[in-house]
Amino acid sequence: MKINFFEEFPKRKNLEKVKLIDFESTIYIAARSIDEFKKLKEKVKILNPKLRVAYWPILEKSYWISPFSYNYELNKLYEDLEKNKKGEKLKILIDLELPFLNKKLFFKNLSFFFKNKKIIRKIFSQQNKLNIEILTAEYPVPGRFFQKILNFLGISYSINKYPHKRIIMFYTSMFKEEKNSKFRKHIKKRKEELGDKLQVGLGTIAIGILGDEPKLSPANLERDLSFCKNNSIKDVVIFRLGGLNKEYLNKLKKFTD
Fold this sequence. Notes:
TIM Barrel, 10 helices, 8 strands
């Protein structure tokens, strides 16, 4: 199993945790531009040259990517990606989430909904032109009906129509066991449908932008990793790098290839 990490706050103290990683891994680094990302990538490579580093674009005001984001920020993201098309191929995480950090965006940017959805689809459909490989972070919403709602809202896209890999955010520390049990069934079903195009996000082992995310215990992280391994999930991404310590690391090493 490949164990990878998100890092939402790439400050020095968080990035230095890569020194603890002695197995093959990819670090998804949040940044507001490709130029910023490249500087952060250099820092990671100095600290641990063996690691792969992927770009996680964060929008300045909208934060997450969705049809409710500011239109000019989505256009800016596309233009930034277009400038890099002759450079090194980028692995890019499209974090598809509704604007719960700023609920006013649901109404403020509603008139741009279809235009914004078109821009996001354009990024997906022009991966070869833009020289990028896309992975998405998505909600663990069970059932075909709810999946169709996510598709309509522009926070999930067809893997067959727009080839990419999907990371389902299965953060068991944030939900009660009854709901996590439903999510496990959903992940099993999606694994059958998507195969190796499905990856799973685990956590949280440190707080994120919401500021109140409960921390997953090392024992429960091991439980979730066992679930993924038993269901032949080859890649997991842990939220987030800054929470990594020797106690978590001891659990992780039981599952690394």
